[in-house]
User: Fold this.
Amino acid sequence: MSDRARQELLTRARARMEEQGRRGLRRMPPRPRRPEQQIRAYQAALRRVTASIEETVRELVFPVLDDLLDEAGTRSDAERLDDWGQRLRDLFNATRSSIQPVIGRTRELMLSLGDDTTERASGEVVRAIRATLGVAPTFYDDDRVRGILNAWKAQNEAFITRMADDAIEQMMDTASRAVRQGRPTREVKDELRKRFGISDRRARTIARTEISQLNAQVTRERQREVGIEGYIWVATSDDRTRDEHADLDGTFVAWDDPPSSTDGLHAGEPVMCRCVSRAAVDRLLDQLEAE
Assistant:
């Protein structure tokens, strides 16, 4: 926590209260807005990676499955050859090379989305404080936030590469196993199509989880910098909300004491979490009013 930022905020809020009272202010800040635009943009980019893998596999692998089955000798009328496995690996390595431009563009977008999410999270903290205290804070401790952002970018560069590599590796294993078993071409294609769906679901999970975690972590640092030591857990109440998150809805959580029911993670940090943290600005307001 930056004493400078906190003291400056309280001084300005006190002056505003002495001059204007509480006119036009709220006791509870507005509900924080989730970074849905950034989530959707990241999800779309990751889906483009999976779509590129699917397109390339359909183009390179599907047309030669009959030949591979013949070469593998797993059909009764086929002459066995030993190089079909290497040929299959070459096809999937070609797939990996083909999608590199898409991966490069996705990395560039991810870096931009990280910056946007960080700026947006800081803006949401400003919005909450201004609505309650009538003044906007000034943030000085950028090193911690920059460290969080840089670590997030490095982790997501690895995620993007690993997501693509895992998808291709799993498809190659699926195709290799099916060819060894002598499965009909139609069944081999069906198995690969199922893998397309798994890759797409993983892209969606990565996008929501990673953007939400960055948003939550920057929010934490910005709130603590100005002396806000906790928040109100705000859950999204629908049939997808986890029971433990619904139980936390409306409760106060200290930044230094995350809930055990979420494995020590704050709102927005668990996988696919849609919860947000409403800044407990009222505690600063109580201090001002007491003075």
In short: The chain is about 65% helix and 5% strand. Residues 3-290 form one domain. The first strand starts at residue 230 and ends at 234.
